[in-house]
């Protein structure tokens, strides 16, 4: 079986480019039997979700709408992102913010260059003509009298295209705001602040936001990127990682308590993806935590997804850090466990509780209704399980209603995986997180992966997955393999409860890892074919699995076909998803066994390309997009024809079950 699947994909690859010409033959009819007499296991409404990590400049420089890099001068070199000119120094005495103590002192005595600072943004600053931008900064004068500052936007040709002034008045720290109204669109502009008057001024937390953010949230998200998330209709939103949960060591691990409260006083942390790959170094990659746990919860709500935070379990990244001192000893784990308990209070606790009060002060007195929590990302061995056990005990004792997710390590099979799954059963976690970044062949074979899983143990959370071809690029091939694989997730919805593709975002000029679901630059984004596969699944979940077989077997690779069927009890619709990875049209006799005879209207949504390597790009974003058409079928037996290299989603109306 495995060999013929591989053969099919290699044949596809071989004929790539000419598939459209040879694909005219239509195979003999295969029969799909859908049992419409009995609904199967429920499918979780949250089944298809998203996983966000600050990798590929996904947060600062991406989803988080802040346009200034190193706004608080807190990177290890406080001038990263900034080009000072004239007389500029970094100070820490009497700071404005105790946890972000560095600020810039600018002195001007009619030097030729003037005195001030230029900010480069994140590979430039994206500015749209006609939009408004809110500049804010904290400042105080050091010399006597008020001091005027000039604010500019500078384009790639070094021309100024927006100018405003602010007067700093007073020797105490104060916040100043000015609205910029540029008339030019520029993907790679710079921000400049220049002293006009003589004297000395201190500047801190210099921030520039588009006035429009997603859902008009202050300190909000970039509209197009957040909207793309909402458009996926994600059931669950996993955050903040990924390896970033572990950081490089204990000190740089993700600590959610550092990411809440006033944004100016959230201590900056290095981003562990800065030097992970020797061939792709990003010494300017830090986490401002402007997108912190409050914002993650709020965004979950705004896009209609269940929040799913992942917390550090007391271990450093086991790939990178082999220093035992960088793991928290088991007998000193209490602060880590408290972080988990306090997080649940932050999300769900009454406003009278310590952490519920902080949530309320941040603008959300109502609880966030947290139901899921993951402890540890990709951890393994007894180092992990002995720590996880303590978390499970403490969370169960205080919050028995919270569902706990444990890890099965970084690989989808092998010794660590085989050790961890029985351990997860022993610890009685609710779900086990599985990760697989694997080849097209693996994904096709994986359509059967969950058919034989233990139905009694914890449920599966396929928490990170993506089809990785040799060139590691997004393409129609990878999307099609994922679509085929996901038929197996849905068919096994009794055991697979959640799944999230990874990673989510990548900046075209600053990525570390690919493939990714959504690519963007400073002004626009492109949705990959993989995005559309995720969207087609999430928009067509159904409430229950229906049995769909070909010669009494689930359709998982026979004749290059992969299929799953679901019923939506709320709308009485039958939903059938079929991936045809072959290069031929396929005729299918659909036997909707048990459905009374008659005509049924519906829709067919098709994702197709005759070029397996075809991709969507920023300059050509619509090469592969789903196309919907109205259809009518005859029940209970009808014939459909599947395009070669296609993923088809049929939604058939008025299918009331008997
Ligand atoms: O998604 C990229 C990385 O892959 C994640 O941070 C990690 O969990 C996995 O190894």
Give the topology, please.
Elements: H1 2-15, H2 19-22, E1 30-35, E2 48-51, E3 82-85, E4 87-91, E5 103-108, E6 116-119, E7 125-127, E8 133-141, E9 147-154, E10 160-168, E11 174-180, E12 186-195, E13 199-210, H3 223-231, E14 236-239, E15 269-270, E16 286-287, H4 293-303, E17 306-311, H5 334-348, H6 354-361, E18 372-375, H7 381-398, E19 403-407, H8 415-427, E20 431-438, H9 440-445, E21 459-467, H10 476-491, E22 496-501, E23 505-507, E24 518-520, E25 525-527, H11 529-539, E26 544-546, E27 548-550, E28 553-554, E29 561-568, E30 573-580, E31 586-593, E32 598-608, E33 627-635, E34 637-642, E35 646-652
Parallel strand pairs: 1-31, 2-14, 2-22, 14-17, 17-18, 18-19, 19-20, 20-21, 21-22, 23-24
Antiparallel strand pairs: 1-27, 3-6, 4-5, 5-13, 6-12, 7-12, 8-11, 8-13, 9-10, 9-12, 15-16, 24-25, 26-29, 27-28, 29-30, 30-35, 31-34, 32-33, 32-35
Helix pairs in contact: 5-6, 7-8, 10-11
This protein binds alpha-L-arabinofuranose (AHR).
Describe the fold and architecture.
Helices cover 19% and strands 31% of the residues. The chain has an eight-stranded parallel β-barrel, surrounded by five helices. Strands 3, 6, 7, 9, 10 and 12 form a six-stranded antiparallel sheet that branches. The protein has a six-stranded antiparallel sheet with strand order 26-29-30-35-32-33, covered by helices on one side. The chain has 658 residues and is α/β, with parallel strands linked by helices. A hairpin with a 4-residue loop joins strand 29 (561-568) and strand 30. Helix 5 crosses helix 6, helix 7 runs parallel beside helix 8 and helix 10 (476-491) packs parallel to helix 11 (529-539). The model is unreliable at 1-8 and 10-23 (pLDDT under 50).
């Amino acid at each position: 079986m495995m060999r013929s699947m591989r053969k099919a994909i290699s044949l596809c690859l071989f004929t790539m480019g000419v598939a459209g010409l040879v694909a005219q033959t239509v195979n003999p009819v295969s029969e799909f039997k859908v049992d419409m007499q009995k609904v199967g296991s429920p499918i979780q409404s949250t089944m298809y979700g998203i996983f966000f990590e600050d990798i590929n400049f996904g947060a600062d420089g991406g989803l988080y709408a802040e346009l200034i890099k190193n706004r608080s001068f807190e990177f290890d070199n406080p001038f990263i992102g900034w080009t000072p000119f004239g007389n500029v120094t970094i100070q820490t005495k009497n700071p404005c913010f105790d946890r972000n103590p560095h600020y810039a002192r600018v002195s001007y005595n009619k030097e030729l260059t003037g005195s001030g600072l230029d900010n480069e943004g994140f590979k430039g600053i994206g500015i749209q003509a006609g939009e408004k931008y809110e500049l804010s900064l904290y400042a105080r004068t050091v010399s006597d009298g008020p001091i005027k500052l000039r604010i500019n936007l500078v384009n790639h040709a070094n021309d100024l295209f927006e100018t405003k002034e602010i007067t700093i008045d007073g020797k105490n720290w104060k916040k100043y705001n000015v609205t910029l109204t540029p008339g030019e669109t520029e993907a790679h502009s710079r921000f400049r602040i220049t002293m006009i008057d003589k004297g000395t001024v201190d500047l801190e937390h210099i921030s520039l936001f588009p006035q429009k953010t997603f859902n008009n949230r202050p300190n909000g998200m970039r509209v197009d990127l957040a909207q793309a998330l909402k458009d996926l209709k994600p059931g669950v939103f996993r955050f903040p990682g990924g390896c970033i949960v572990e950081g490089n060591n204990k000190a740089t691990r993700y600590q959610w308590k550092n990411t809440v409260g006033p944004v100016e006083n959230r201590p900056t942390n290095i981003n562990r993806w800065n030097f992970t790959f020797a061939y792709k170094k990003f010494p300017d990659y830090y986490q401002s935590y402007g997108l912190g746990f409050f914002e993650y919860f709020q965004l979950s709500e705004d896009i209609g997804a269940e929040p799913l935070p992942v917390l550090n379990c007391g271990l450093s990244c086991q790939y990178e850090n082999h220093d035992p001192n960088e793991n928290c000893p088991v007998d000193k784990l209490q602060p880590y466990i408290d972080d988990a308990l306090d997080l649940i209070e932050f999300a769900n606790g009454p406003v009278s509780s310590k952490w519920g009060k902080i949530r309320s002060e941040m603008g959300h007195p109502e609880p966030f209704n947290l139901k899921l929590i993951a402890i540890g990302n990709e951890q393994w061995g007894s180092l992990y399980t002995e720590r996880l056990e303590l978390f499970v005990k403490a969370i169960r004792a205080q919050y028995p209603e919270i569902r706990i997710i444990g890890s099965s390590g970084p690989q989808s099979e092998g010794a660590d995986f085989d050790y961890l799954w029985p351990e997860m059963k022993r610890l009685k976690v609710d779900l086990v997180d599985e990760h697989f970044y694997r080849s097209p062949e693996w994904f096709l074979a994986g359509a059967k992966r969950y058919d034989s899983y233990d139905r009694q143990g914890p449920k599966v959370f396929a928490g990170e997955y993506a089809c990785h071809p040799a060139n590691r690029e997004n393409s129609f091939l990878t999307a099609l393999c994922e679509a085929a694989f996901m038929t197996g997730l849905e068919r096994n919805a009794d055991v697979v409860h959640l799944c999230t593709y990874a990673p989510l975002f990548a900046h075209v000029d600053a990525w570390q890892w690919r493939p990714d679901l959504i690519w963007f630059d400073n002004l626009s984004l492109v949705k990959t074919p993989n995005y559309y596969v995720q969207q087609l699944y999430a928009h067509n979940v159904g409430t229950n699995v229906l049995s769909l077989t070909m010669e009494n077997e689930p359709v998982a690779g026979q004749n290059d076909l992969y299929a799953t069927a679901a019923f939506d009890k709320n709308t009485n619709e039958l939903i059938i998803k079929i991936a045809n990875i072959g290069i031929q049209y396929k005729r299918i006799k659909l036997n909707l066994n048990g459905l009374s005879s008659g005509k049924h209207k519906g829709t067919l949504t098709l994702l197709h390309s005759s070029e397996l390597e075809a991709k969507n790009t920023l300059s050509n974003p619509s090469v592969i997009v789903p196309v919907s058409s109205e259809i009518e079928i005859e029940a209970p037996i009808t014939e459909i024809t599947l395009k070669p290299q296609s993923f088809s989603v049929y939604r058939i109306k008025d299918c009331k079950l008997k």
